[in-house]
Write a structure and sequence with these properties.
Chain lengths: 276, 161, 453
Amino acid sequence: MAIQAYFLPETVDEAVSLLAEYGPDLLVMAGGTLAMPLINEGVSMPAMVMGLRRAGLDGVGESNGRLAIGATATMTQMLAQDAVPMLREAARAVGGWAVRNMATVGGNLFAPPPSGDFAVALLALDAEVHLLSQSGARTIPLEEFYTGFMTTALQPGELVTGFHVPRPTGRTVYLKAGRKHANTPAVVTVAAQVVMDNGTVTDARIALNAVGPHPMRARSAEAALIGQPLDEAAIHAAAEAAMQESQPFTDAIASEWYRRRMTGVTVRRALTQLAS
Amino acid sequence: MTAKIVSFNLNGRDVDVMVKPLTTLQKLLREDLGYTAVKIGCKQGGCGSCTVLVDGEPMMSCLLPVEDVAGRRVTTLEGLAQGDELHPVQEAFFENYAIQCGYCSPGMIMVSTALLEHNAHPSREEIVEALSGNICRCTGYEPIIRAVSTAAERMNGNGSR
Amino acid sequence: MVAETPLNVVGTSVPRRDGLGHVTGKTIYVDDIKFPDMLHLKVVRSPIPYGKLNGIDLSEAEKVPGFVRALTHRDVPKNVYTILTLIGVQPDDEPVLAVDKVMYVGEPIAAILAETEEAAMEAVSKVRLDLEPWEPVLDVEEALKPGAPIIKDWGTNYFIYDYEYGQANECRKVRLGDVDKAFEEADFIVEGRYQTKPIEHAPVETTGCVAKPEPDGRFTVYTNTQALFFTLDNTALILQIPFQKLHFVGGTVGGGFGGKVDVIVEPLATLGAMKTGRPVKYRFTRDEEMRASSSRGAWRMYFKDGVMKDGRIIARKVVTYADSGAYHRHTPYAVTKHAANVAGPYYIPNVWIDVYCVYTNRQPGSAMRGFGVTPASFAVEVQMDKIAETVGLDPWAIRFINAYRNGDIRPHRKVVDDATLIEVMQAAADMVGYDLPDEYRQMSSNDREGGNG
């Protein structure tokens, strides 16, 4: 059936109230880069749609040493900020110019694997997600937002309104392996942050995308680095651990075997780059 | 299902259109307004053949609801030439054989035009990056890159790069 | 004596006739064409690779607002693609709309005509199919093993060649000399298994057409086919109408590369126009273009070469399995071209070539640039490098030594009279700055040193 209504609320309160009113019949979209292809192909046939482009959720700014990003801030806006350089590299990994003008930070949280190349950087940076419904607001670590394949901690009536990203204290690296240099789905993407003290790793975040049901932390790989110098042996151990704990899948882009191999290769390259 | 009136600026003229909910800009431009230079390649934002400029910025018209461009300035390929006089980017594409089947050309030309507005002397890498969202299956891209460089020189002289 | 005419065009840069249309966006493509009261056609496709089609339930689809009518195999006057019949290849093996079985994921089962594209897509999603899956055949060599399920009606999973000469060859065969004897004499045996994957043409413009009934009883069909008259002929045969009833308008193709030669959309669209009296547009979505339209099929090639210490290849045996997918389309023809070229542009005195056209429950393969020969070139040249490595010679040397010369006989008995491989390689060496040893600089396509001729 043809779409009955398309709402373009002008405030976030209006948005959550529409969501409360129409519930699961209302498809929420921001940039449209994920929802519109499915609607165009006839795969998704929602009765009603709500667009968030005008709801005032696109602000980007700094507060208390953290980067505040509105849910509908675009990849282009991320490319333009210099508070967190890794987020520029992550934004560049999403689509091409026109898609970056449309795709949003919040939307990337709902991108099916192997998409999620921006969110993986947020994961490596310990980002927090702000959620809002008519019953109130809450904030959770991004890592708790993903609960399974295409499932999230989002409750009915809730909207993602934005993020807070602490300024990284360690060195960061972002490396995407794809079949082309640009505008390509990931074979595997690695986003990492490593904190060193006197030549020893004291803290590490290694986040992987496209080798699991959603962007995920490679905790064994991180553990392999803690207390070690960031040398070839430690990097090798971390890469091996990442390969083991990844949960790659086969799709049109790459086979499970190749994704697993490339996880090791890409983690090794990323950490080597970070160490130099 | 209620249709809505949306007003925006199209190729320099103010237009008011009536659209059903979530009509894409691509569909409106092509089917209702006759601007068929906007092409359909995938309807997924993956090929770039539907690229239009919204306030000078490239966007995929196949993913853009008409309601979202209310009050904005939309430019399509039809809005580029001034009467008989081609835009330097169009001329450069023509002369450099940056066109074969022609289907990707509207999108390529719109993105190239936007690039040169942002960056008077793009390097080869910058041209390639700007065009990375537009797919061409015929030319192998080299003539297109050459055309953009040529156009840059014509428009802005020989900048040092 | 013929006076020399001056050249007016050769050597000049000629502006493209369609260039201005392309850069201004004024070129009209099929999808830019529309008519009042035009209907949209969308196809119901098989979700399984192989199985029995017991029934089609249109009851829910018919309720979708905008649904106009459906077409099934019963509506198609001659429900068979006749593509290869026109060039003398039998049997016709592919229905326009499936009758009682499906042979690949994406096979057309029914066509839905509706007022809008959205209504057509919704109606398609509501068609219920009664399908009984069978075990599919998905690998070319598995397909040829004894005991494999036979998926083609004539009783084999391979195309039968030379029936018109009273033979029944299971593959295309080329024979020259005695490879087994030569293998015994060879200093080295070099083997290789080469596999290409299916490749999709992926033109930016998808396949499509608009069929319009005219007041005088004819139909005008606007189409982006690469083969206008070929498509007209096939459409007329399928619809069982005289050829002159059809007026095909085309020639503007947004990328074809061989992918727009299968006459896939015109028969159904024209049939829809016949049945409803209204213009009908049938355009592939991007998903259909990638997954249902024909691809360049996969080829599996086994090479066994007998090579001498001095680099001469004295025997080449090639067994190729071409994956035609569920139907011929043009693959039996590609196999012939492959057989003629898979020995490579080299002189080899003992050759054995077997090329099978194999059927599997996969997307049908069809023409794509270099059809049948590009996979051969890939395998041949990688094999040449392998030979070079095995024998301990330079990859350039191996090719100069074995390059065919004028006067050489090729395995399919054509005498070479236009050889230029030597000269092209010499020029290529110059262009890339490779210092060719003198003995290769002095070679020519017109003679052979060392007595291989």
